[in-house]
């Protein structure tokens, strides 16, 4: 994807600013770089180093701050589940810019001031809940700031306040949808749209949520290190492409091994540079999220660059008997087998000197379970030249999550 002159100018300005801010994190990274030497996209790719999650962890707690402490109005943090947490400082401008992007997401989804937005992601250090709320308030809609969990109260407020929009992880959206169905309260639900983020989700899950609740679903994108959710969303045309707001971020898609740009349309690792972020600007941050550019113009007419839905994460990849397996790998197989639901799990073990993968999948009532298991094994063999063990269960038997769902559990040492 071609970098614009405006983006180049903003990047040069950002590098000059962080070189002068006195923070050792940026001083070291850019000590041999003169911003004026970055005249082209090729110069940028050659001169500007990558930034990784480990770099940010090493800067804990406030080593990323590129402004004086009195200009920091808020911090957010990653969960730290895979290592030391990352703390990201925000200036007032950063907070305002994030709200602006999030309000833009709502507008692209056709949400207006007349809507009532029920927000179920978590508040606090995590960027989710407060981002959804800030965008809602910027738009001027009514926020219903529920936060996570307490499904009983979620459903009560959803009915009593006649929420028209639900914001959630796909896992929790599915849990709520199934509860609406089981309780027979669909006639009391006024939802029209769902804004879903934080984890990848497959076609079967999307269709199940959409069909139970009778709503339009939108896939929002973002990450703590780069503002949070709200840096991109798919549009009202309901095409698969997610528009990324290139007036705030420059996006590259790179080969995870070589770090070189992939051809347009090929899958690679999303790498982000913040163009105007003050508190903790990032340059060529490797997200581990995998996607591809969509080069065709969007029928909605917007010119923001588009990427495919997130296909997985490079660090979610597991290798089984020489095969690279992602959650999307399993989704591709089960969606080809009639009667399967959206829910699945996979467990990988090392048994008697060999790798063994067991796939657990839910099926609809009345479906022949033995035939389904054979079908999944057949498609796995055809597509990936391996045959997992398959255990088929009824809908609702696999555990549901109020947050993100861990799809693949690797129990090997």
TrEMBL record:
GO molecular function, one term: nucleotide binding
Keyword Transferase: no
Limits of the AMP-dependent ligase C-terminal domain: 322-412
Record's keyword annotation contains Phosphoprotein: yes
Pathway linked to the protein: Aromatic compound metabolism; phenylacetate degradation
Residue ranges constituting the AMP-dependent synthetase/ligase domain according to the UniProt record: 65-272
Keywords: Ligase, Nucleotide-binding, Phosphopantetheine, Phosphoprotein
Enzyme Commission number: 6.2.1.30
SUPFAM superfamilies membership: Acetyl-CoA synthetase-like
Gene3D superfamilies: 3.30.300.30, N-terminal domain of ligase-like
GO term, biological process aspect, one: phenylacetate catabolic process
Domain of life: Bacteria
Subunit structure comment from the entry: Monomer.
Family: Belongs to the phenylacetyl-CoA ligase family.
Protein name, UniProt field: Phenylacetate-coenzyme A ligase
């Amino acid at each position: 994807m071609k970098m614009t002159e405006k983006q180049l100018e903003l990047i040069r300005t950002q590098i000059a600013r962080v070189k002068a801010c006195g923070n050792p994190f940026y001083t070291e990274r850019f000590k041999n770089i003169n911003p004026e030497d970055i005249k082209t996209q090729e110069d940028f790719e050659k001169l500007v180093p990558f930034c990784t999650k480990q770099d940010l962890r090493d800067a804990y707690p406030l080593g990323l701050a590129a402004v004086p402490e009195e200009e920091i109005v808020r911090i957010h943090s990653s969960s730290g589940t895979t290592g030391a947490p990352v703390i990201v400082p925000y200036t007032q401008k950063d907070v305002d810019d994030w709200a602006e992007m999030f309000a833009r997401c709502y507008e692209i989804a056709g949400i207006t001031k007349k809507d009532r937005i029920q927000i179920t992601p978590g508040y606090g250090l995590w960027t989710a809940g407060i981002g959804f709320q800030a965008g809602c308030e910027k738009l001027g809609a009514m926020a219903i700031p529920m936060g996570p969990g307490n499904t009983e109260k979620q459903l009560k407020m959803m009915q009593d306040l006649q929420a028209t929009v639900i914001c959630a992880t796909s896992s929790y959206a599915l849990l709520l949808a199934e509860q609406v169905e089981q309780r027979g309260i669909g006639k009391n639900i006024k939802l029209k749209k769902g804004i879903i983020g934080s984890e990848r989700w497959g076609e079967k899950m999307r269709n199940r949520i959409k069909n139970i609740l009778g709503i339009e679903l939108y896939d929002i994108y973002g990450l703590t290190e780069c503002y949070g959710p709200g840096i991109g969303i798919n549009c009202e045309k309901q095409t698969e492409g997610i528009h990324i707001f290139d007036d705030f971020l420059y996006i590259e898609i790179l080969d995870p091994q070589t770090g070189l740009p992939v051809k347009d349309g090929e899958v690679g690792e999303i790498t982000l540079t913040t163009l105007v972020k003050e508190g903790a600007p990032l340059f060529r941050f490797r997200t581990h999220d995998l996607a591809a550019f969509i080069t065709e113009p969007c029928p909605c007419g917007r010119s923001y660059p588009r990427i495919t839905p997130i296909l997985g994460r490079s660090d979610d990849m597991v290798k089984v008997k020489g095969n690279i397996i992602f959650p999307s790998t399993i989704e591709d197989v089960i969606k080809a087998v009639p009667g399967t639901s959206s829910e699945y799990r996979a467990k990988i073990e090392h048994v008697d000197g060999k790798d063994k993968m067991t796939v657990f999948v839910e099926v609809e009532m009345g479906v022949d379970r033995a035939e389904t298991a054979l079908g999944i094994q057949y498609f796995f063999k055809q597509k990936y030249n391996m045959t997992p063990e398959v255990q088929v269960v009824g809908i609702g038997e696999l555990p549901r999550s109020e947050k993100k769902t861990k799809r693949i559990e690797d129990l090997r040492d």
